[in-house]
Amino acid sequence: MDRTAPERIRRRFVIGNLLERWLPKLVVSPLFAASLVFVYGFIAWTIYISFTKSGVLPDYTLVGLSQYLRLWSTPRWYVALQNLLVFSSLFIGGCMIVGMLLAILLDQRIRAEGAIRTIYLYPMALSFIVTGTAWKWILNPTLGIETFVRGLGYPDFSFDWLVDPHFAIYTVVIAGVWQSSGYVMALFLAGLRSVDDEIVRAAAIDGAGPVRTYATIILPIVRPVFLSAIIVLAHISIKSYDLVVALTGGGPGYATDLPATFMYAYAFQRSELGLAAASAVMMLMTVMAIIVPYLYSELRGRRR
Amino acid sequence: MSRKGIVRRRGAGQAALRLLLYAVLVLFCLVYLLPLVIMVSTSLKSLGEIRTGSLISLPTQVSLDAWLKAWGTACVGVRCKGIAPYMWNSVLMVVPAVLISTLLGAVNGYALTKWRFRGADVIFALMLFGAFIPFQIVLLPMARTLGLFGLAGTTWGLVLVHTVYGLAFTTLFFRNFFVSVSDGIVQAAKIDGAGFFPIFFKLMLPMAVPTIVVTVIWQFTNIWNDFLFGSAFTVGDSNPVTVALNNIVATSTGVKEYNVDMAAAIIAGLPTLAVYVLAGNYFVRGLAAGAVKG
Amino acid sequence: MAGVQLEKVRKSFGQNEVIKGIDLEIAPGEFVVLVGPSGCGKSTLLNLIAGLETLSSGNIRISDRLVNDVPPKDRDIAMVFQSYALYPTKSVHGNITFGMETRHVRRDEQDQAVSEVSQLLHIEQLLDRKPGQLSGGQRQRVAMGRALVRKPDVFLFDEPLSNLDAKLRIEMRTEIKKLHQRLGKTTIYVTHDQVEAMTLASRIAVMDNGHIRQFGPPAEIYEDPRDLFVAGFMGSPSMNLVRGTLVGDGDRLAVEVRDQEGTVSFPLPAALAAKVRGKTGQQIDLGLRPEIITHHGAHAEGAMLSNFERAIDVVEPTGPDTMLVFTLGGAEAIGRVRSDEVVEAGRPYTFEVNMDKAKLFDPESGIRL
Question: Which residues of B touch A192 (CB under 8 A)?
Fold first, then answer.
């Protein structure tokens, strides 16, 4: 009795300790497993499918690159890519310019800054589907701006980009910049605010005016914000799906298709699984081409 | 930069610049507010007034008919019960998905930072990757998997999807918070005899309340606003409200009732808008924290 | 040469008045140190002089020019900040020349100026580096270099040494003093460290709660503090304050301190006694700096001495001296004896006090008598 009781306690202690040591791993592993399956497994599956002749149903017969060849000979894919190029460059550029401008203006000891900031940022809280509904209505030639301006006494005014195959993509840009520029503003404002006050004061003593202070001192300091804002915006633009659906539905025709809507259309409407998978793989590769170097430099930079 | 009281030359030029500054800021306020104002004012007009009136004119006669119709009787496809049942779908989807993904992210972030084991960093990096993928890459296998488990077209299926793909974000948020918590606290608690879960629930979670709020708001906004998963994995009756809204708006049959569209859009956007107005600071912090990801 | 005059200077942030009417006259070439506890308004006062904060009321003159509405760059000042405030994206060279660039100084003049100050401060080999690659002491030098090239009328320093480790702090302190002796420029220096104030200043302004408590040369501030605050703030360890009762009659007055260990009587020298005549029986605060409570035979001949014995609570050797902590009149007190005195904690020790250097304070107002 005297010898076994401590022994039992000791053993329980050891088991408890062992459990404690394994508990963190036990907790993490199912989550990690889920991510392995749902992220990496699914990516692998999609990649695999992109090399098969799958149509309406998955067909696991490998056919090499033929889906990719088909993809790259589909005119609609080129339209989507071209739109992506136009949309992403204008969207990123527009958001950066507007967001940065607003952040700098808001950084000037503004009364009611909080309220103004809230107004600039609220679209980010809304779904593209919701705001798209509003924009669709505003940009609608017979009901929106066009009619409004004509009513003001300019009967020849025309603003029908929404239904013009050549210009419809620009309406997506307008709605996108309106929605996301506040986000860039918030990022930049936080960056500007993090600059040490004493540096700004030193610049004032050195005689730099506002323009020079921003251009040569403050903006170079917040350079990391540029990078992360551009990365985030690029990411949004590649994934953009709901904005196009809500605003133009990809139309007129497929004039405003983006890779995201293209993929969806081929996967769920035209049931061309192999081709859809190939387009999804192209999207993934594009995103990775942007993200991986960024993450790499971020992680490396942090270690330094 | 002149946010502090640095002495500047006074004069007409300065005053004019200041005026211009405010003018620009107010102009942008109008630009950002106008769509919302137009939405609200249109939703309160009758169809006749919409046709005769102008885009930005305020309703001469405020009518809540469009709101009532959007809520209770508007047709989504062939089902004419308004947007209400779909709001309910979204609630049923968003509440469990937010709670589960937040809790799991919290435990995960805690285990990966405060009980660092070999490979913890690699596991985190691999899981973080899930936050960056374009979801199109998982649409097809996910659709098949949901079918396989009999979850296709169900709210629970969407809960699963949002939990799984939200986990990368929630883990990121909590990891970043727990990294900033001193290891000494955990060491001290261990010496006091507390184990993995007691430390988590009694010490770490109470400290992490702001991060919990940020994460919940972030997840709520993202999941409520999701359209891609909702349209890919649900049909008809089980649609979340964003999909239903798009169906109302995109309907081309019959007379187009713009006021009902607008009312439906506002109703669908109201929950996230309310959260934004009530907890804007946390929302902004979530955006900043999510900036690493996008 | 430039002097600086402050006239009824006030500054409020909203409801909160931080500077409560300060007058200060700084002569050309002086080294004035503003010293005080944190929150006393010393940095705000410096920022007002620099033009980095706008006055609420009052006047500031630099070289007899009213500068209330003059922007910082036109005040002919240079400033060294606590965080150094180096521009992180510019090289050391770029940091130093930035001010000259904004003033469109010719390139060859810039180079000339850079080489001068970099030689002076021994930073020639650092010119191409970024601030992030410098040590604390090097950053400090660069910050000073940036101030020096402006060739200003007035140098302003805002706690420039507080981010350095103890050894470097003393080195840089000497460096700053040398620089001032060499250039002879008017300097205003903010610190919370009274040793820095004592060592650097030609005059010290002791600040508290938005007021200047006393303004004078270091020796005067130390030996002749106007009130309890100044006496307590300057000196380390700070002055011992003992509450006692004034006893005696005529010129033979003494402060009597009672506690559990007995009664100690501190006889007052005639000069001191003259100031408190007629207050017999009243309570009074006796101020004794640690260095005047010491071992037998340490004081100059002819000084008025007084002895007392107390049990020692703690013995703290510092190297050259040993601090002895004991209790007197219910309060903790510190004496300072030479290090070869044999003292043991718990045992009684007999101190000798130089009463010529004792101070008396009114316990109500804190004013020195």
Answer: 1
